[in-house]
Amino acid sequence: xxxxxxxxxxxxxxxxxxxxxxxxxxxxxxxxxxxxxxxxxxxxxxxxxxxxxxxxxxxxxxxxxxxxxxxxxxxxxxxxxxxxxxxxxxxxxxxxxxxxxxxxxxxxxxxxxxxxxxxxxxxxxxxxxxxxxxxxxxxxxxxxxxxxxxxxxxxxxxxxxxxxxxxxxxxxxxxxxxxxxxxxxxxxxxxxxxxxxxxxxxxxxxxxxxxxxxxxxxxxxxxxxxxxxxxxxxxxxxxxxxxxxxxxxxxxxxxxxxxxxxxxxxxxxxxxxxxxxxxxxxxxxxxxxxxxxxxxxxxxxxxxxxxxxxxxxxxxxxxxxxxxxxxxxxxxxxxxxxxxxxxxxxxxxxxxxxxxxxxxxxxxxxxxxxxxxxxxxxxxxxxxxxxxxxxxxxxxxxxxxxxxxxxxxxxxxxxxxxxxxxxxxxxxxxxxxxxxxxxxxxxxxxxxxxxxxxxxxxxxxxxxxxxxxxxxxxxxxxxxxxxxxxxxxxxxxx
Amino acid sequence: xxxxxxxxxxxxxxxxxxxxxxxxxxxxxxxxxxxxxxxxxxxxxxxxxxxxxxxxxxxxxxxxxxxxxxxxxxxxxxxxxxxxxxxxxxxxxxxxxxxxxxxxxxxxxxxxx
Lengths: 494, 113
Prior knowledge:
Chain A has two domains: 4-99, Outer Surface Protein A, domain 3; 117-475, Aldolase class I (TIM Barrel, Alpha-Beta Barrel), CATH 3.20.20. Chain A has 17 helices and 16 strands. Chain A has helices at residues 38-49, 54-63, 68-80, 92-99, 153-165, 186-202, 220-228, 241-247, 257-270, 289-300, 322-344, 352-363, 409-419, 433-436, 441-448, 459-479, 482-493; strands at 8-11, 14-19, 22-27, 32-36, 52-53, 84-86, 117-121, 172-178, 206-213, 231-236, 276-282, 304-309, 377-380, 386-387, 401-402, 406-407. In chain A, strands 12-11-10-9-8-7-13-14 form an eight-stranded mixed β-sheet, covered by helices on one side. A three-stranded antiparallel β-sheet of chain A has the order 5-1-6. The longest helix of chain A is centred in the C-terminal third of the chain and has 23 residues, at 322-344. Mean pLDDT of chain A is 90; it is low at 1-5 and 88-106. By secondary structure, chain B is mostly helical. Chain B has a domain at 41-108: Quinohemoprotein amine dehydrogenase (Irregular). Chain B has helices at 9-18, 67-76, 101-104; one strand spanning 4-6. In chain B, 18% of the residues are buried. The chains are: A alpha/beta, B mainly alpha. At the A-B interface, strand 4, helix 3, helix 4, helix 12 and helix 16 of A face strand 1, helix 1 and helix 3 of B.
């Protein structure tokens, strides 16, 4: 057997990046971020040229002025943290994953994973007819015929009981109200909030709420209720009137901007207990990110604005083509630079896409699955059917059980097995996998007909965006590290 | 950690994990010891690979783990000269579907010349 000292070292799996004149690395198998000092840079630059044995490295480093013990210590430190790895280079990082210790591994999801969030689809009905909607549009997965259109209070109540029973060990749980248009079933929403608060208080636990709405049905009384009960509100809105009205229309084709604009203003003015967020769906022709952001943030006063490209099969007219996506990314970069300026002054900028990524980078997530669907989160449809998340609600193909009988563990296991990063071979050489983990299960189903298929159509885009956020993270960590502390709290609050 | 500054929670965990235990079995420690070198397991048996084996009858059917697992080890990790697909020239992708041999060994296919 060859002695350890003569085995060649080579670089481990990391993404190197620079910001604010410093050098950093994002250690991919762990999701860890480190800043490098000059000595570490020297060693990494050396190994970037070619691999070298331990003795050879020590000799070269001592020739550069390091003492032999310093050189050994440097090699040991970088090797133990797997910034550099020794052994046969053909083995590669993928094999390493099978033997590395727990901080680096991302094994099967635990079988017993208590729920944290329940998404209640209070209704599958909507008063708008947005063409791109994943619940009604051409790519829908829902099969609602013959099922209830509105959730009744009994089902909602059973769902709350289910959430509290299935979340043992968690101090706080979360309910998100969703639709259809959530507020078309406001009476039940109101009852649910009262019931859930009473029940959780009885158990000495906390419960908080959020909802997504198209804002058409907001009234002063509803706004007051939402504010009083600290219900977080996300408004689906696509920008100023000319962009918003392209696809967010009533059944007769009329745009909805004029209806919601005064209601959104009233909401932001009178709901003071939680930040109000806008959620923008980008489609072909609605890619003017900066103008949309300025309008929603500055003209209307949203606290946060988040963007996501529409989920669609590629041949739809409203699908964004590659050039469109490049334009979107370009504008994201401009807003991201702006975000950095704000962060260095200690201010929140409001571009959620950056905050969300920074938050995950701060924790150093290393995801086994792209999101919490079917793990800590499930969706419940008006009929009481359980789905992996709100996007799969009312789909017979994806149902994971019923609220009265609980989660079908076999179906859940199958869903999670297919969505696990270990089954997505295309992802295994990608440095962005700790954050992306292959991307949205629902998007994958719409694109590829399989919830476990990696979303290969936006890989470059995800890597470009993650790289930008890494550099922002690096710059903040040097110039205003206090700002990053905000993210320690953020996860607990969201 | 002297050369790497941890910047997120995961990095901090790694630093904590790698820090030497303090005041652990002081009597047995030798202060003159050189800095610890990376530990690399020697031989196959430490990393889920008991080596090339046959059962008492000279066959592989009765082994406690599949023979494919052994073959995989000869392909990438071990210099034992068994007949395996050659990963340098003819079968560079043979193990592509086998991310973790402990789980995915069924995905190693036969190679026909």
